[in-house]
Write a structure and sequence with these properties.
Layout: H1 9-16, H2 20-33, H3 48-57, E1 67-71, H4 79-85, E2 90-94, H5 98-110, E3 116-119, E4 132-138, H6 143-150, E5 154-164, H7 168-174, H8 176-181, E6 184-192, E7 201-208
Parallel strand pairs: 1-2, 1-4, 2-3, 4-5
Antiparallel strand pairs: 5-7, 6-7
Helix pairs in contact: 2-4
This protein binds S-adenosylmethionine.
Length: 212
C-alpha cells in the first residue's frame, strides 16, 4: 500500500532534495496511521504526496531563518514537512486538539527533529503575541477569520505565509477590512510549483505592520 504512494521521484527530489528521506518517513507514518487517527480522510491517501506533502514542501523557500509558527498544524501540514525541509528554522506548531498534538509530538520524537516545539492551544490563546517572524497555516479558515488569529502572533515586519486554494482572490476581497485593521502591507499571492508539481500551491503573503 505504501509503495503506491511514492511520489514521482523527480518532482519529490526537486522539491525536497537532501531532505527527501525524512519527508518520506513522515509520509509513510501518516499513510499508515492518518486515517485511524482521524488526521486525513480515506480519499486523501492516494493523493497524499501530490496534494498534501509536495504542496506543503513548495513553501519552504519562502521561509527565513528565525521562528516560524504553524497555526492549526493538524497532521503536520505544512509544519512538519517544512521543519524537515528547513532545519535552519525553528518551528512552533500550534494545535488545540489533544489527539493531534500527541501525533505531532510523536512524529517530532520519531523523526528526531530538534527544531520543533508543539504548543497545545488555539492561536488566539497562546502567549506568542508578537513573537514570531513568520506564521504559516493551511486549511484552517478563510482569510477574513484567519488573519485576525494569525497576524497578532507576528512581530512588526514579520510575515504571514498562508496557504490558500484557487479562491484566494475572493478571500482577499472579503478580508479587505481585516487587512487594513492589522496593517498588512506588501500583500501578494505567490503561485509555487508551476511546471514542476501536479498541483500548484498558492500562498497569501503579507508583511505585518505595527499592531492596530
Ligand atoms: C482542516 S484542519 C487542517 C490541518 C492541517 N493544517 C492540514 O492542512 O491538513 C484545521 C486544523 O486547525 C486547527 N484549528 C482550528 N482553529 C484553530 C485555532 N483557532 N488555532 C489553532 N488551530 C486551530 C484544528 O484543530 C485542525 O487541526
Amino acid at each position: 500500500m505504501i509503495d503506491a504512494l511514492e511520489p514521482e521521484p523527480e518532482v519529490a527530489a526537486t522539491v525536497f532534495g537532501e531532505h527527501l528521506d525524512g519527508v518520506r518517513a513522515f509520509t509513510e507514518a501518516l499513510a499508515r496511521h492518518g486515517e485511524e487517527l482521524g488526521l486525513i480522510g480515506p480519499l486523501e491517501l492516494p493523493r497524499l504526496w501530490t496534494r498534501h506533502i509536495i504542496n506543503s514542501g513548495l513553501v519552504a523557500p519562502l521561509l527565513r531563518p528565525g521562528r516560524v509558527g504553524d497555526v492549526g498544524s493538524g497532521a503536520g501540514l505544512p509544519g512538519l514537512v517544512l521543519a524537515i525541509s528547513r532545519p535552519d528554522v525553528s518551528f512552533t506548531l500550534i494545535e488545540p486538539m489533544e489527539r493531534r498534538v500527541a501525533w505531532l509530538e510523536r512524529q517530532v520524537a520519531e523523526l528526531g527533529l530538534s527544531n520543533v516545539e508543539v504548543v497545545r492551544a488555539r492561536a488566539e490563546e497562546t502567549k506568542l503575541k508578537g513573537r514570531l517572524d513568520q506564521v504559516t497555516a493551511r486549511a484552517v479558515s478563510a482569510l477574513r477569520t484567519l488573519i485576525p488569529i494569525t497576524a497578532p502572533l507576528v512581530r512588526p515586519g514579520g510575515e504571514l505565509v498562508l496557504m490558500k486554494g484557487a479562491g484566494v482572490d475572493g478571500e482577499i476581497t472579503a478580508a479587505e477590512k481585516v487587512i487594513r485593521k492589522f496593517r498588512l502591507y506588501d500583500v501578494e499571492v505567490i503561485v509555487l510549483g508551476e511546471g514542476v508539481a501536479t498541483e500548484v500551491t498558492r500562498v497569501f503573503r503579507a508583511t505585518v505592520g505595527t499592531s492596530a
